[in-house]
Amino acid sequence: MADDESIEADEQVVTALEQGLQQYSNLNPEILSSSKVGATMADDIQNTALVAVLLALVGIFLYVMLRFNKWQFSLGGVVALLHDALMIIAVFSILNLFGVSYEMDQVFIAAVLTIIGFSINDTVVIFDRVREYLNDNPSKGIREVVNPALISTFSRTIITSLTLFLVVVVLFIFGGEVLRSFSLAMIIGVLFGTYSSLFIATPIVVDTTKEKRTQPAPQVQQVR
């Protein structure tokens, strides 16, 4: 009855709910609150959420490109963020197939945008270290400095992610039903965001960067 906006439809829903709760009459059930989202409103929320995520990705792409003066860093960061958002949606959809259903509402969109901000922060820290190593070792290519850069920032990345992970797990357990979808999306986002910063964003930068090949020094044969 999502397309029926009449008051009679609301009354029918309430009546059906009360009839379903009659078997629990000894517990004195009551309707504490109700909300109604029509089909038009649902489409508006979906479109607005899509625009919000796209604008966030475009803004981050421009910011990273201006910060590092290379589009390869922007591409790696945005692809990793898109991966994080898709993984959150995918896990929610898979859980729904197994009967574990959580609402994908405005709170869920807020969680996705929060994860985008968290993930790009970790990614930028790694990119900063890569650029620092490149500036300190101008004779080396990015393939030679990327692993030391990842190793040097690894402990910071894990500690930051673990701290946030513990917080959102506690929020998921004790935060109540209202924040359950938000905290679950955050848990999924922290896991995949940490993974993508290390194993998606940086490898994309490496694969898309063309290194300048130095010509080998000419060999001189000594004649006696």
Tally of strands: 0
pLDDT < 50 stretches: none
- Helical/strand content category: mainly alpha
What is the multimeric organization of the chains shown? single chain
* Order of helical and strand elements: HHHHHH
Specify the helix fraction band. Answer: over 70%
β-strand amount: under 5%
Biggest sheet: strands, sense, closure?
A: none
What is the end-to-end distance? 99 Å
Explain the layout of strands and helices.
Layout: H1 7-20, H2 39-68, H3 71-97, H4 106-136, H5 142-174, H6 180-208
Helix pairs in contact: 2-3, 2-4, 3-4, 3-6, 4-5, 4-6, 5-6
Provide an overview of this structure.
- This protein has 224 residues and is an all-alpha fold.
- Helices cover 73% and strands 0% of the residues.
- α5 runs antiparallel to α6.
- The longest helix has 33 residues.
- The chain is elongated.
- The chain starts with 6 loop residues before the first helix and ends in a 16-residue tail after the last helix.
- The relative contact order is 0.12.
- The model has no long low-confidence stretch (mean pLDDT 86).
